[in-house]
DNA sequence: TCTAAGCAGTTGATACATCATCTACAGGAG
DNA sequence: CTCCTGTAGATGATGTATCAACTGCTTAGA
């Protein structure tokens, strides 16, 4: 651990700190809006959005976890909480007795239908509307490149 | 709530999802590396970095909270945990009996000095090295513009 | 000087994420 | 059929974030 560390240059540091802070502040703000206006957490929102995109609003824990890139344990705990609030129900799986399905309820559909428009408006008002199309393309390009690298570079 | 919602275009959606996923994946990975290689959480890291940047490694809860943009409650809980592990100590304040200082310990300095180089290398390897200087400038520009707007647009 | 406003930090409750461990079942090799 | 390995998901412990009170101290203002 000699002095061979390539510390960040001032520009790199500024970019990195700005990016980190953006995540924290924007994510925090959007999350709080979601929670206070629609009474769902960002995690609830992700689950509900995904379930409305899937036949019969019904999917195996496993597949849901893969789609959201969550750990199975997180999924299990989170679905238990959401089921407690009536947004989804757990359903046994006939074909594989180990497995189970998560199914969105009417209350879950109502919640997501109420939350989504507000959330999208917030994403626009707080983010998209302040970024030009060209900048947005750069951002997409960066995100996808870095994500691709993360995928390769070990799980 | 009529059908006047301006949903995201496919490009916008791709950009937004990529950005959100980048946060989650990159943040998660860097956090886990920090934790497993250096035994400090990202939050610990932020506190320690800030304290090494300040005279005598010593600052009021309040000022620390402002600098990191944390709530005072979070600060209080977190410092209590860090103090439990010997990374910082709490110190009463003579001038204002309500207040208190957070002071970094030798163990805290040792921890951050061990963690920082690895963390910087990880930030480079997983992010900076995959982004061109021009892209980095765009990212900085976007971040700062959006953050500025968040500041104005209410607390 | 007394009081009311409000600031600094704490505390307890609740929700969330991760980890290690555990149970039950599935599917293949012998 | 009987193991044996692996998979699906559950569970409990720990650490973390947020919210809503709450305590004790300060300070401005009547």
Automatic annotation (TrEMBL), chains A, B:
Q: Which InterPro entries match?
A: HTH_MarR-typ, MarR/SlyA-like, WH-like_DNA-bd_sf, WH_DNA-bd_sf
* Domain of life from the UniProt record: Bacteria
> What are the residue boundaries of the HTH marR-type domain, all occurrences included?
12-148
Q: What is this protein called?
A: MarR family transcriptional regulator
Species assigned in the record: Streptomyces tricolor
